[in-house]
């Protein structure tokens, strides 16, 4: 009889239940991971509230995962037993144009743990061993749980090209926005400003050393941003809020010839000003996925070195047994949360 474990299973909208399920059996190239911490993000919340959007349910949610190897891969690949690791969650088919171009996140047959197959809100997880990122000594597993969203920020920053001595603006001071801002600063941005209305999030951003602007009117926000970049305007703009109209506003806030990276998805149709893009020759990139080597590994290194400070972003910790409560907490707009972590293991 197979060993059993606890798993937080999504079965429908606002229907999450801790169930006993069999411990998964790893293939030869997979390691068995004892999950320690798993973060909840906006896409998880979207599935909880509105899904299925991307997921193929019923499924165990969670794609921001750190754990300890309890059974190394039989083929000898990947870390040894006992190593704390960040789990890469993006897998392509390995044979299409995008996979062969090292862009597996764009693969038509993409599989993401926590969406298309069981993820990290469980006591055990199997994962491809050669894509596990070791957590260096001195970096706590709790902080390492933010490596996946940091990898999103690392990838997005790369879309900007040269950052040194340029000005950056981040629209949205949630998890991704605060991480993008820190990556831009680490890469040499001359100044980074965050647009954020929530007072608690703004306080975290200020505590991290960033200027924060807000005004209820878009024109007033634009004026405040312009006053902080009086020379030529904002070179680099990252839209991380997902708020209605935010994409168009981000494009408008970029200077002529500026670069905009969109990281969030707004439900429904999102109009943008093509005049701003065409006549002022602005460049727009989308950014979502990440690769284990070019994005996740550098993210772990940035957190471990202290270049990225993730501790102020962790605003709540809950046990796996109250996983559904964590989703309700994140959904409660009267409470300001940035990153909620689910504690699964003992470390």
From TrEMBL:
The keyword DNA-binding does not apply. It comes from the Bacteria. InterPro entries: ADH-like_C, ADH-like_N, GroES-like_sf, NAD(P)-bd_dom_sf, Zn_alcohol_dh. Residues 28-137 form the Alcohol dehydrogenase-like N-terminal domain. Residues 176-304 form the Alcohol dehydrogenase-like C-terminal domain. Gene3D superfamilies: Medium-chain alcohol dehydrogenases, catalytic domain, NAD(P)-binding Rossmann-like Domain. Its cofactor is Zn(2+). Keywords: Oxidoreductase. This is Zinc-binding dehydrogenase. It comes from Microbacterium insulae.
